[in-house]
């Protein structure tokens, strides 16, 4: 993109945002109350929130890089960056976030049929349908390919039985994309199918799990003779592992800091200084400096990998490294923030919001989406070529 | 800002450099020099000049190839992989960058000499145990139209083989940078036996005469010239250290795949796999910081301090881990002088101290990030 074209687009974006972003949506808020997950049962906290989502969705800017026909705006990275820059400048809230945007969308774009894309992507882009991910099971954690939830053929349908666990926000989701076993005799990676299931189907039930952070972002999800059309298979029957792996790559990138997390985040020095007496302890100060150095270098690595993906080089299994480094870093960062906060950081309110809850939540970062140890094993085998 | 990927030209330069150095200067070349008690290979340096490497930061009108800092980092990285002994960073990077800040005929001639491979520079900045350019004590007192320099510089890298010295001295109202011939009367150089078998000297200045023409830049204002030069050197040294880390790592992973104990390759053991994977992750992350430093020096040099210090801070930590793990995973053989890993460990230690260690650069990052 030429410099001129960038600037033209920038001024168009600026004008449009100025005219269309409601004042209430310009506070840069990203806390729980500010997030819009969307879905059939979603309740907006204000009219402005709904207006903002509808206007952004109409522009295709809830999913700016998706093709226009599927609800996006078809922006390349340079244009996308301009949009994000301009939104940040006015403190515009993210209009919509969801697992549909982060995970299912990219998987459907890569593996779905044209009909599936037309059916599922626009509702994700408009925030009409909320998805959750059904991967882990009580007996299939790090060893994800051991999933046992069965889908048995019955004419044009499957009958699904089994249990998923750690399903994020399953109790609030409209639909689930799940890994189910369709061939029990095949080697474990070759008998898995990637299946889309409506949570309103009879036989689906959920139960929230309370975490040490006081919150319940995860659920157990049960399938009891659930009838699902075979048309809901993404990719090919028994080849769902390919889709799952593709999607896990996106999940790793998201957990490791996503597009903006680390780069857009406040400098740790500023965060700790803001806490009273935050950095007066030289030992803590030294640790925080080390953490900041590593955070900056990891953010640059995310940038470099994006450059590589953009140039068509692909990142592949190296995304396991970003997931490993990014999540371990986030844990370190929160340990330091707790240390700087001292006794002040040890209380929490009834809603379990604030630093203490966040700190506890980060401990899951290096578990969910593949543990740090699984990431190291992936690097060891697939990048370094060490024997299994 | 350009991307953090190598350009086509940089990739070609990297491939050419690797091809040449694998033949002309593998690690065994350093071993030969060390065993012969030498710290410089004039033939190798002349070949580097012929390929345009010594002129990598010299303008074309002065006979250079002017490829930029990112390219200089590419070369330093390849030199680091096989621990090539040469005054590349002190001369082609630091001295060339300093001389470029000055628009005099004399500076242009000096740049031409660097590009031609005819001048080796030593950097006489440090005096104490740690890099501290602001705290130098060597005095240049006014004497008629000129100066008289008295004091001692230590850890003058490439000072033993140097034709010229960049000398940082205290003047009446600040610091001043001098460009002096190494054999000027009153200068005594004592080569040190360095742990990495490379050239560093202690240099004594005993009432050494200097003229106004010997001053690089303005009197009492050394940093306008020296700061960009030091930052260029720090970036290139980070690249060298990353190259060194990659060289040590390649040996280590190779060994994990080949060495058998308990009837299997030791690379099958998860304890070692995870440590190797962690080490690889660290090198990948540091690579981004090094690339970024090179790009910043080329595209926004006035604001490159954070990027450069980030690169040097990361590179010191990564190199330390790479050589410690390198020796440990090789076991007993890693401790032997016959084996090359020790050379990597020794060079990493010296490169860590030169131009500012982890603490020095971490403090600069912290200052830039609101600590």
UniProtKB/TrEMBL annotation, chain A:
<keyword id="KW-0274">FAD</keyword>
<dbReference type="Pfam" id="PF02770">
    <property type="entry name" value="Acyl-CoA_dh_M"/>
</dbReference>
<dbReference type="InterPro" id="IPR006091">
    <property type="entry name" value="Acyl-CoA_Oxase/DH_mid-dom"/>
</dbReference>
<dbReference type="InterPro" id="IPR037069">
    <property type="entry name" value="AcylCoA_DH/ox_N_sf"/>
</dbReference>
<dbReference type="InterPro" id="IPR013786">
    <property type="entry name" value="AcylCoA_DH/ox_N"/>
</dbReference>
<dbReference type="Pfam" id="PF02771">
    <property type="entry name" value="Acyl-CoA_dh_N"/>
</dbReference>
<dbReference type="InterPro" id="IPR036250">
    <property type="entry name" value="AcylCo_DH-like_C"/>
</dbReference>
<comment type="similarity">
    <text>Belongs to the acyl-CoA dehydrogenase family.</text>
</comment>
<feature type="domain" description="Acyl-CoA oxidase/dehydrogenase middle">
    <location>
        <begin position="132"/>
        <end position="226"/>
    </location>
</feature>
<protein>
    <submittedName>
        <fullName>Acyl-CoA dehydrogenase family protein</fullName>
    </submittedName>
</protein>
<dbReference type="InterPro" id="IPR009100">
    <property type="entry name" value="AcylCoA_DH/oxidase_NM_dom_sf"/>
</dbReference>
<dbReference type="InterPro" id="IPR009075">
    <property type="entry name" value="AcylCo_DH/oxidase_C"/>
</dbReference>
<keyword id="KW-0560">Oxidoreductase</keyword>
<dbReference type="Pfam" id="PF00441">
    <property type="entry name" value="Acyl-CoA_dh_1"/>
</dbReference>
<keyword id="KW-0285">Flavoprotein</keyword>
<feature type="domain" description="Acyl-CoA dehydrogenase/oxidase C-terminal">
    <location>
        <begin position="238"/>
        <end position="384"/>
    </location>
</feature>
<feature type="domain" description="Acyl-CoA dehydrogenase/oxidase N-terminal">
    <location>
        <begin position="6"/>
        <end position="128"/>
    </location>
</feature>
<dbReference type="InterPro" id="IPR046373">
    <property type="entry name" value="Acyl-CoA_Oxase/DH_mid-dom_sf"/>
</dbReference>
<dbReference type="InterPro" id="IPR052161">
    <property type="entry name" value="Mycobact_Acyl-CoA_DH"/>
</dbReference>
UniProtKB/TrEMBL annotation, chain B:
<feature type="domain" description="Acyl-CoA dehydrogenase/oxidase C-terminal">
    <location>
        <begin position="224"/>
        <end position="367"/>
    </location>
</feature>
<dbReference type="Pfam" id="PF02771">
    <property type="entry name" value="Acyl-CoA_dh_N"/>
</dbReference>
<feature type="domain" description="Acyl-CoA dehydrogenase/oxidase N-terminal">
    <location>
        <begin position="7"/>
        <end position="116"/>
    </location>
</feature>
<keyword id="KW-0285">Flavoprotein</keyword>
<dbReference type="InterPro" id="IPR009100">
    <property type="entry name" value="AcylCoA_DH/oxidase_NM_dom_sf"/>
</dbReference>
<dbReference type="Pfam" id="PF00441">
    <property type="entry name" value="Acyl-CoA_dh_1"/>
</dbReference>
<dbReference type="InterPro" id="IPR036250">
    <property type="entry name" value="AcylCo_DH-like_C"/>
</dbReference>
<dbReference type="InterPro" id="IPR009075">
    <property type="entry name" value="AcylCo_DH/oxidase_C"/>
</dbReference>
<comment type="similarity">
    <text>Belongs to the acyl-CoA dehydrogenase family.</text>
</comment>
<keyword id="KW-0274">FAD</keyword>
<dbReference type="InterPro" id="IPR037069">
    <property type="entry name" value="AcylCoA_DH/ox_N_sf"/>
</dbReference>
<keyword id="KW-0560">Oxidoreductase</keyword>
<dbReference type="InterPro" id="IPR013786">
    <property type="entry name" value="AcylCoA_DH/ox_N"/>
</dbReference>
<dbReference type="InterPro" id="IPR046373">
    <property type="entry name" value="Acyl-CoA_Oxase/DH_mid-dom_sf"/>
</dbReference>
<protein>
    <submittedName>
        <fullName>Acyl-CoA/acyl-ACP dehydrogenase</fullName>
    </submittedName>
</protein>
């Amino acid at each position: 993109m030429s410099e001129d074209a960038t600037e033209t687009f920038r001024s168009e974006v600026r004008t449009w945002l100025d005219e269309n972003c409601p004042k209430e949506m310009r506070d840069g808020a990203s806390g729980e109350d500010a997030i819009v997950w969307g879905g059939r049962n979603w309740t907006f906290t204000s009219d402005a929130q709904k207006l903002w989502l509808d206007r952004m969705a109409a522009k295709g800017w809830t999913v700016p890089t998706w093709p226009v026909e599927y609800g996006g705006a078809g922006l390349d990275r340079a244009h996308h960056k301009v949009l994000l820059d301009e939104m940040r400048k006015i403190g515009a809230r993210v209009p919509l976030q969801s697992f549909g945007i982060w995970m299912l969308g990219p998987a459907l774009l890569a593996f779905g049929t044209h009909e599936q894309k037309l059916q599922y992507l626009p509702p994700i882009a408009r925030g009409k349908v909320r998805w959750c991910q059904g991967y882990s099971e009580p007996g299939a954690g790090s060893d994800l390919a051991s999933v046992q939830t069965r889908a048995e053929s019955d004419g044009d349908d499957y009958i699904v039985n089994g249990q998923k666990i750690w399903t994020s926000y399953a109790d609030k989701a409209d639909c689930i994309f799940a890994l189910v076993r369709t061939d029990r005799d095949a080697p474990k990676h070759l008998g898995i199918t990637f299946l889309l299931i409506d949570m309103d189907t009879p036989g689906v039930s959920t139960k929230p799990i309370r975490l040490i952070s006081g919150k319940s972002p995860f659920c157990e999800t049960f399938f009891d003779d659930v009838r699902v059309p075979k048309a809901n298979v993404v990719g090919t029957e028994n080849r769902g592992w390919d889709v799952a792996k593709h999607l896990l790559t996106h999940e790793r990138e998201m957990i490791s800091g996503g597009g903006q997390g680390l780069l857009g985040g406040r400098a740790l020095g500023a965060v700790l200084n803001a806490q009273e007496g935050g950095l007066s302890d030289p030992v803590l100060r030294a640790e925080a400096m080390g953490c900041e150095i590593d955070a900056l270098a990891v953010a640059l690595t995310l940038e470099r990998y994006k450059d590589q993906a953009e140039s068509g080089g692909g990142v592949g299994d190296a995304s396991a490294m970003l997931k490993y480094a990014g999540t371990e870093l986030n844990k370190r960062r929160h340990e330091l923030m707790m240390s700087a906060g001292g006794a002040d950081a040890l209380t929490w309110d009834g809603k379990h919001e604030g630093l203490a809850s966040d700190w506890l939540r980060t401990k899951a970062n290096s578990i969910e989406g593949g543990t740090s140890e699984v990431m190291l094993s992936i690097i060891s085998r697939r990048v370094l070529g060490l024997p299994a | 800002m350009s991307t953090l990927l190598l350009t086509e030209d940089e990739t070609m330069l990297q491939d050419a450099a690797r091809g040449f150095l694998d033949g002309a200067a593998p690690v065994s070349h350093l071993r030969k020099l060390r065993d012969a008690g030498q710290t410089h290979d004039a033939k190798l340096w002349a070949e580097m000049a012929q390929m345009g490497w010594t002129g990598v930061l010299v303008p074309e009108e002065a006979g250079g190839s002017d490829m930029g800092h990112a390219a200089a980092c590419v070369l330093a990285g390849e030199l680091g992989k096989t621990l090539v002994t040469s005054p590349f960073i002190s001369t082609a990077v630091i001295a060339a960058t300093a001389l470029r800040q000055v628009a005099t005929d004399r500076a242009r001639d000096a740049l031409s000499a660097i590009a031609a491979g005819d001048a080796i520079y030593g950097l006489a900045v440090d005096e104490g145990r740690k890099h501290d350019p602001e705290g130098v004590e060597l005095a240049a007192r006014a004497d008629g139209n000129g100066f008289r320099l008295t004091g001692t510089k230590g850890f003058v890298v490439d000072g033993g083989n140097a034709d010229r010295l960049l000398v940082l001295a205290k003047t009446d109202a600040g610091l001043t940078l001098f460009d002096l011939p190494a054999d000027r009367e009153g200068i005594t150089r004592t080569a040190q036996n360095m742990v990495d078998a490379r050239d560093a000297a202690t240099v004594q200045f005993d009432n050494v005469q200097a003229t106004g023409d010997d001053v690089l830049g303005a009197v009492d204002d050394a940093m306008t010239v020296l700061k960009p030069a030091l930052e260029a050197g720090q970036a290139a040294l980070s690249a060298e250290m990353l190259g060194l880390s990659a060289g040590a790592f390649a040996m280590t992973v190779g060994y994990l795949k080949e060495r058998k104990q308990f009837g299997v390759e030791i690379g099958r053991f998860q304890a070692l796999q995870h440590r190797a994977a962690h080490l690889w992750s660290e090198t990948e992350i540091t690579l981004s910081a090094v690339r970024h430093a090179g790009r910043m020096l080329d595209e926004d040099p006035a604001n490159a301090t954070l990027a450069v210090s980030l690169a040097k801070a990361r590179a010191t930590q990564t190199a330390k881990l790479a050589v410690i793990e390198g020796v440990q995973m090789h076991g007993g053989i890693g401790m032997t002088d016959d084996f090359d890993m020790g050379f990597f460990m020794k060079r990493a230690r010296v490169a860590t101290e030169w131009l500012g260690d982890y603490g020095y650069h971490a403090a600069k990052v912290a200052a830039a990030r609101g600590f």
